[in-house]
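Quick check before the chapter quiz. The format below is the same one you will see on the exam, so make sure you can read both the input and the output lines.
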Amino acid sequence: MAEDKSQAKIKFFTRESDESLHVLDTPLFAPVSLKRYGLSEIVNHLLGLEKPIPFDFLVDGELLRTSLQEYLTKKGLSTETILNVEYTRAVLPPSYLNSFDNDDWVSALDVGGNKIVSGSYDGIVRTWNLSGKVEKQYSGHSGAVRAVKYVSNTRMVSGGNDRTLRLWKTKNDDVKNLDEFEDVENAHTLAILEGHKAPVVSIDVRGEKILSASYDNTIGIWSTNYKEMTAVDPVSDLGEKLSTASKKRRKLALKDGSIRRRAPLSLLESHKAPVEQAIFDSNDSTVGYSVSQDHMIKTWDLVTSRCVDTKTTSYSLLSIVEMPARRLLACGSSARHIILHDPRMDSSSKIIQKQLIGHNNFVVSLDTCPENEYMLCSGSHDGTVRVWDVRSDAPLYTITREDKSVQKGINDKVFAVKWAKDVGIISGGQDKKLQFNKGDNLFKK
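Here is the expected output.
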């Protein structure tokens, strides 16, 4: 009948644990013109909720972002098909909370407990409280700090354009081993980690091991315990042909000779271009992944220091994050999109399982939602942070920079994003600000 052709047959269901959100899955007819808002009205009516709840809808595991008619047409389905539609609490737009002013470009971020640590192009590592007060500053790097990571609540590690990593002590009030602070002037520096020959742009920590990615095409493996690494003589390589900057660093090393200097446990070599990021596998600390400007995703056996798998794309890869519950790697690219890759697939398989498209420039930073296995956020040189659900190939929301005094397109690159429980999405960039955005139920599944 003509009337039936304008309707779709739907069977609603949910995986929500809240029993009050469950309805009978008896099929019903709904106008094919309906989108999320109209479907939300139906479900709220069926549930008999006094206060309406916004819902998202999934059809065959894919987030519905169009009308039912458009979905049916896209999939080549008729209105006679029964659609099994899952409803789940909607993710609300992340609202702007606050911004903290920094002295220079913000290039790295991490969160530990109720503290935020940032790395900046002025070479300083800073820890902030949630009120925006800088509690401590850590000086020592002679170039921009490109990576920071908490090791524990009393330790942290940073890396930068001066080609070194630094292990820092973050608290002095509970020191048990006083020889850690034998050099009062540099009391916070536990050790300088040397071995890379170009900027260190990424750090990951798992247990007692550190991974670093460098523009010298290598990945470094280090220990969080300086006693496990070989000491480095600061003048041992003066026979090399050194640049003026390198000679200056060596002179500083001699001057600060009391600071421990350590060599890597291993340097991993296989990439043919600068390595942008290296991470540990979340379930197996003996496995690592890396992405590079050579277009490759590599899997590493960190015990034998061997590359055990290589996947090649058509573009430079600039960032990577693991989504362990989905068994996926998300990789940001110079082609402006994010690719989703299953590292378990063999080399003959098609590498790209899905592309997330929406950014207008390089995707240089990624982080996952702490409480929703399907969601991640991305920072880009287009000046935005985008929030994604991997069940949809378009972004859920776009976060822009809130500094209205900055002309659009100028000084607005985002360099770093971090998604932390109870804090929200923190982003930093060329506008010299740490920006905070959070949705009321952004972490709900």
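If your answer matched, good. The two ends are 39 Å apart (CA to CA).
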